[in-house]
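Dear H.,

Thanks for agreeing to be a second pair of eyes. The structure we're designing against is below in token form, covering all 112 positions.
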């Protein structure tokens, strides 16, 4: 199976990173790297876009005390049945944070 359109992750501050390009083979996993925008940030929110349409959102609860510009690797998996899951890892403290995606109803191709 192939991704029908580009799948992009967007943060609350508008930064975008490609999860899978249109035509990419599925299943796939992509490693994205985001950074905290301020010291003490406690959440990282991602919106997944199918082309320009929003189809899912996830919220990662981060540990307290992270500095500004702390890199947060996020691993996004897309199954052959178009199911999406994600996991964030914070390297300094060796933590793992899973996030559940909730559909937004704007795009119909992907299941969460």
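And this is the sequence the design step returned. I haven't edited it by hand at all.
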């Amino acid at each position: 199976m192939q991704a029908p359109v580009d799948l992009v992750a967007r943060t609350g501050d508008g930064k975008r990173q490609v999860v899978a390009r249109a035509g990419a083979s599925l299943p796939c996993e992509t490693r994205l790297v985001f950074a905290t925008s301020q010291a003490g940030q406690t959440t990282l929110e991602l919106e997944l876009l199918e082309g320009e349409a929003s189809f899912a959102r996830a919220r990662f609860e981060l540990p307290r005390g992270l500095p500004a510009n702390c890199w947060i690797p996020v691993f996004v998996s897309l199954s052959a049945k178009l199911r999406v899951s994600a996991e964030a890892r914070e390297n300094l403290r060796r933590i793992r944070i899973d996030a559940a995606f909730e559909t937004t109803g704007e795009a119909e191709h992907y299941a969460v």
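Two observations from my side: The longest strand covers residues 53-61. The chain has no helices and nine strands.

Warmly,
E.
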